[in-house]
Amino acid sequence: MEQESVMQEALQQYKEGIGIFERHLPEVARQYRRFTEACFAEGDLSVKNKHLIGVALGVMTNDEYCIIYHTKGSVDHGATEKEVLEAAAVAGAFGGGMAMSQAVTMLQEALKEFQNGHGTDPGQSMKH
């Protein structure tokens, strides 16, 4: 049996944590999900571009779960490696060393994994 990757493990931890949160605060979780689904729906900005914004914000705020989640979302919606790295670079312009440390480590590891399809089910969509 193939060992679960660090990226897949992080996504699973997030999913499990949301499940616990939802059991304790179902209405809050339901409203949060509705809000984020609306935010990430196709609109004047494409879903891909919204995930690229999420990548930049995750890098900027040093949020590893958001980096992983939105890197996967970006790749799943057709973002190229260069597009993902450009989004991270914009965050680096604002966030300096802290943002760049995520852009050259966690982001690149997630990008490599999701571009190669390792540990992911291509038919499984990600929802907030």
TrEMBL record:
One of its GO terms (molecular function) is peroxiredoxin activity. The keyword Methyltransferase does not apply. InterPro entries: AhpD-like, CMD-like. It comes from the Bacteria. Pfam families: CMD. Keywords: Oxidoreductase, Peroxidase. The keyword Oxidoreductase applies. Residues 26-108 form the Carboxymuconolactone decarboxylase-like domain. PANTHER family: ALKYL HYDROPEROXIDE REDUCTASE AHPD, BLR3452 PROTEIN. This is Alkylhydroperoxidase AhpD family core domain-containing protein.
